[in-house]
Design goal:
92% helix, single chain, 2 domains
Length: 88
């Protein structure tokens, strides 16, 4: 009887080991599938890369600073023009 019991438990252990291996394989396959789907979705969204965003952000900052300088220069020229018109 002990031999039958041992064989039963051996077969049960083998089945459990096989089931665990199959579950891990299924998990890896699912993770690969989800990663591929995520990458595909991101590609289709046409997102900008971080370095490109930072470059455009820096360009916009420089343009704002240049606009502020030009506004100050225009204001000074208008004030000078108004002063010249006031003297005439």
């Amino acid at each position: 009887m002990t031999q039958t019991t041992n064989r039963f438990f051996d077969e049960l252990a083998k089945m459990m080991t096989d089931a665990a291996g199959a579950a891990q394989g299924l998990r890896r396959e699912f993770e690969s599938f989800m990663k591929a789907q995520g990458e595909r979705i991101l590609r289709e969204m046409d997102l900008v890369r971080r370095d490109e965003f930072d470059a455009v952000k820096a360009m916009a900052q420089r343009a704002r600073e240049e606009n502020e300088k030009l506004e100050a220069r225009i204001a000074a020229l208008e004030a000078e023009l108004a002063a010249l018109k006031g003297k005439a």
